Amino acid sequence: MNGYSILIGGKAGDGINQAGLLIARIFNQLGYRIYMYYDYPSLIRGGHNFSIVRATKNKVGTHQNQIDFLLALNQDTIDLHKHRLKKTSNVIYDSDGVKSEGIGIPLKTVIQDEKAPVISRNSCLIGGFCKAAGIKYNILEQVFKKHISRDIELNLRVAHRGYKEVKELAKIRILSKRPLPLLTGNEAIGLGLIKGGLSTYIAYPMTPSSGLLHFLARIAKDFSLKVIHPENEIAVMLMALGSSYGGEKTAVGTSGGGFCLMTEGLSLAGMSEVPIVVMVSQRPGPSTGVPTYTAQSDLHFVLNAGQGEFTRFMVSPGNAEEAYYWSTVAINISWRYQIPSIILVDKTLSEGVFSFDKEAVKNLKEEKPILWDKKQPYKRYLDTKTGISPLSFIPNKDAVIKVNSYTHDEYGITTEEPQMISLMQDKRLRKEQYLIQDLEKYETVNFFGDKGSSVALLCWGSTKGACVEISEKFGLRVVQPIVLSPFPVKQFRERLKGVKKLISVENNSTGQLVRLINQHGFNVDEKILKYDGRPFSLEELESDLKKVIK
Question: Cβ contacts of residue 539 below 8 Å, gap of 6+?
Fold first, then answer.
């Protein structure tokens, strides 16, 4: 067997996400590569939460519908997921409150005996799972001691009770591969921004971007970061622009609804040429939509947000390594060109957990912006060949550093003179020509699978995981544009050479990437679209693919 899938479920408040992470970390210690999908409703208490941990020999980026172990803290977990079971699957459940076939552990009784809090039931269940899977107790103990911060001895006692309640059913072998760090996509983005010199992060919490705010706040002291939570997203963007104006490399994070409130500030960044990085993590809309689920439906909104015309850089990474690498690129480009950079992700990537292989990521360093050399009187908006004006920051006794939301001249003084209006607009838009040339040194369009195949899957963002894995089974090519603005037409055309059938795979209802590539003269033959708030599972994509491949 190439790997294992384990589903643990309960209600909100049962600690399902953390329980899933503990299982993922146990398999990580055994040398497996991890992907974890977390599913939960927009409820503080109640509802049904579940995590699917996939542990494999090689890196993967999607979950499977079929599972090997079902761990049930409540009856809903059995009733809602029994269709996922195979003949060889094992069910472990709380016999004090759940009716099922399989292995029952009296979780309520155990925690009452040990005088443990109710949330400790998941520790007991994980203990039982480890015994059933043939995982030695010392591995569980090692992971618990490293990753549980409170009541560790109590949790270990409860886990050991669960371990003793179960007979061994399988023997999961230890692989020779070294454990890798486990990161969510949000955490990878945060580390990439820090690599690029981030000094200030400002955000108002909004699922699924909130994890980035919490992560950076948790590590702020380690990296001398300022992490600020203002009263709303309008304040976030305006405060961030003030921070960047003062010379602080600044980023903000939000989802679609919050980005709506930021768009006027984004346009201000375009006119005032103040660098800013914006992380937008998509969820279904319109309006509130399904706030704790996933979508890829904001592409054109983000591409066209803000009044007027201005250059922007936008990337959409597909896994943790890409999120780390391209977040560093984004902050470097934002400060080099003095433009907004946007990192467009979704709930699947933001909150998914990945084995992170830093050695697979090309090394990047923080780049310094072009600074004023003091040889000439300072013009904040000096008209240059590239459109990039040298920067200076307050306080500077030798320069007047004026930024302006109005059309302005080279000094930043408001103007309505026709020739100057055109001159300054040409200057701002000229940056894109040089940015396109600059991006040729990067792999802006990824290329996977059978590169000689005449049938290709087109994907972006988190759909990469399912597409790359299924391409191996069908012998297909996979083409994944990472940079979406300015669109890398030259590299994209090269990746499509020899392709006779192009199939787009997207988590939206209209084919938004298809619309984007149509604007650049490329056509798609078939579309596979999923827009129920859930990402593609491996089996779902396989079923849909069989319908369009003839």
Answer: 64, 65, 66
Could you tell me which residues come within 8 angstroms of residue 427 by beta carbon, excluding any fewer than 6 positions away? 381, 383, 384, 387, 389
Residue 111 structure tokens: 């925690």
Same domain, 504 and 458: yes
Per-residue tokens: 321 = 């390594």
The span from the CA of 301 to the CA of 62, in Å, is: 26
> Domain range for residue 469?
445-548
334: helix, strand or coil: helix
- How distant is the alpha carbon of residue 460 from its chain centre? 12
Pairing between β-strand 445-449 and β-strand 182-184 as defined by DSSP bridges: unpaired
Q: Which residues in 487-530 belong to E strands, given as ranges?
A: 501-506, 526-529
Amino acid at 434: Y
Calpha distance 366→262 (Å, rounded): 26
> Which residue is associated with the tokens 């069908």?
474
105 and 186, same domain (yes or no): no
Number of domains in the chain: 4
**Segment 360-409, tens digit of pLDDT:** 999 999 999 999 999 999 999 999 999 999 999 999 999 999 999 999 99
Q: Per the domain annotation, does 439 fall within a domain?
A: no
- Reading the block at residue 114, the tokens are 């040990």
* b/e sequence 64-87, b meaning 16+ C-beta within 10 Å: beebbbbbbbbebbbeebeebbee
Task: Give the pLDDT confidence score for residue 1 in this predicted structure.
Answer: 46
